[in-house]
Amino acid sequence: MKKLRSLLLTGVVFMLGITTLAAQNSVDILNSGPQPTNTSGCAVNPHCVAATWSTTSNANPTPADISSAISNINFVFVPNGGAKPTDVPPAASGRICLADTRDLGATTLFAQIATNCKLGGGIALLLINNGAATAPSTIPVFTIALTDGDFLRNTVGFNAGGISNYPIRINTAPVATNLTGQHNCPSGQITAAYVGTGTANYTPNESLCLPSGAGQAVEPSMIVDSQGTIYVESIRGVPGGLDLWRYYQAKDGTPNSNGTLPFKYEGQPDCGIFVTTFCTKSGVAPGGGDGDVAVNLADPSNSNIPNLAVVSLDAAEVTGSQSTNRADTFSTPNPATAGVPFDDRMWLDAYDDAGHVYMEYHDFGTTSQIFVQRSNNGGQTYTDAAGTALDAATEPSAGAPTGNIAGQIKVDKSSTGSHGNVYQIFVGPDNPTDNANSLVNAAYVGVASNVSLSNPVLTFTDYKVYSCGAGSKCGSGLGLGNLFPALAVDNFGYVYATWSDGTDVYYSYSTTHGTSWSPAIKITHGTSQAGKSNVFTWIAADANGHVAIGWYGANQAGNSNTLPLTAQWSVFVAETVNGHATAPVFTLSQATDHVNHTGQISTGGLLGSSDRSLADFFQIAMDPNHLVNIAFADNHAGPSISYFTREKKAAQGIQSCGHGGDGEGDENGHKGGKASFHIHHDDCDAQAESEDYSDPESGTNFQSTQVNSVTYDDVAQSITIVGTGTDNGAPVAFTIVAVDSSLLPPGLFTITLSDGYTNTGSLLDGSITLH
């Protein structure tokens, strides 16, 4: 049976079924031969076959796309996918090999197929596969789609000697132009620059410039720091490394008049095994299989520049690096940041200080355990703390043999009592029986609470967020493994989760720091996307209940892996400003101003047999102005590259404040009689905070003069107020703890003064109300 742990190596491209890479070449059929219906990128004839160059092929000594066309050469079909040297027929000598990955009997390195072709005298390789080919070789390698491959095999055909009936021409890729306003862009780009028209709520979609030799820029991760700097990172695939773009207004300029941003191409923080003009600190590991970014708060010891942490996957290890100058330069990648070898799909989130960063990743071997490590040096190493997100009670359900799919790790940066909590979302089987039957029908969140930065141990307790039901494949029949579940925490400690069953996008929230969850809500229900194919969810949150969920949505219903090739995809965003209300109200918007993908989308990860040209996810993030920023993959004009758009204006009704507490009443005095109190604090109210307390029998008469901190605990439903004041005119420091009357009737009030007075008790009358 297919195990989830075999699906999670989401961006690695050295094995079968991986994301499309590279510059868009084309193949023409010459001598009046039969012509395909495809018309994109044709250089000679009105019809051609689209071909994608493998960015690691034609290495002499540096991989490079062909600089002149390979013309008037016949191709020869290689049986069995070309897995063995003996598969290559003698007729291939001096000609082009055509191999079909569907003919392979086992997982085979693409590089081996290219090597076998060369050993047989082949001068180039056309590889039939809807995925990609990273094939280190000294001959050029190109992938073509399954339909185009069938056209070459069956329609163009072969003579009795196994040589194609017509010669072909493999054309060079066109040189793309620069996108006006972006910085540091190479003169030759992978696709022509694109700026759309925008939508009602989102700015014109803009492609991010990419060198023509990069091949692709997919699975974009993004983050916006506290100063509004936007970072977008994407992968090329193993062993090509990562690419990164930055928008920092002070250096990169104000937004363009149409709302697009003048991003700076920052090159490659990790360039895998290659050293190029845009990457000079690499050659240390074959990275680029997965990637992620995170930012800390401003570092007062470094000109108040926030640290930027980056990770890259090479399958055997996770590579980490950091930038302390807003991505202009990066530290030399550390190729051994993970504590467990042979790992997969790492995610990052930073603590709200100058240098602590959390990383999670999967054991890609046998356990499917989710490992969590912490860095105390900005992401250069992750040895400060460690733990596992699957607790002992959950592991029989969501561990091996089926395993789980983990979404991004999140840190609570709120000012509430949950500050510092670490949350990890994942989907997997509901129970051990479903685990044995490979059903992925439940969503979980692991919670590490009361985390101390001085404790090297991270302890998680798992809570089930949602289940389709024991034994169920969920309403869509596709389960919940639709890459990826996602998690967010707002500024007041409320936690939000989203996932997809392939048809509906689900949402749940927790007002108890992940220990209990609201009933799941179908975000797509009652919208234009209801009943259609919707996958690749992501979520962001800020303020008090301001939540946005993004995903790829098709214009047709059905399994994204088997939709008709005419299916059209766009990016959708559902946004709410009351995300933890009993019935949150979401507004749906289309963020893409064009169709960003046509055809199928694979949710099968590494071994997915469908179209993986968009890879496995994209991300959204909110900036300090509460605008939703989106980085997504797009291949409407050629190879998949990263695009960007953001909201034109913030949603109405966002509450940047939220908590409040009021109370008035009596409790028993410390030495008898009654003690009276009054408290008022409201984040959204300009009225001055005021706390006073009187216990006549004890001679206490307190009034506050200054409040230094207010902390809310949404689980205990309590407010803690710390400050200074006077007791009978003498200065004192005070701490007040009040518990909401509805949680623990009739309410509880505690006061401690620095002059030695303290009292606690249940209310005799009055009430305490927190909100």
Q: Please report which band the strand proportion falls in: under 5%, 5-15%, 15-25%, 25-35%, 35-45% or over 45%.
A: 35-45%
Helix content: under 10%
General form? elongated
Low-confidence stretches: 1-23
Number of helices: 5
Spatial separation of the terminal alpha carbons: 50 Å
Average pLDDT for all residues: 89
**Secondary-structure-derived class:** mainly beta
The neighbouring-strand order within the major sheet is: 45-44-43-42-41-40-39-38-46
Describe the main β-sheet briefly.
9 strands, antiparallel
**Rg measurement, Å:** 29 Å
Overall number of strands: 46
Describe the overall structure:
The protein has about 775 residues and is mainly beta. Helices cover about 5% and strands about 35% of the residues. It contains five helices and 46 strands. It has a nine-stranded antiparallel β-sheet, with no helix packed on it. Strand 5, helix 1 and strand 6 form a beta-alpha-beta unit. It starts with about 25 loop residues before the first strand and ends with a strand. The N terminus is likely disordered.
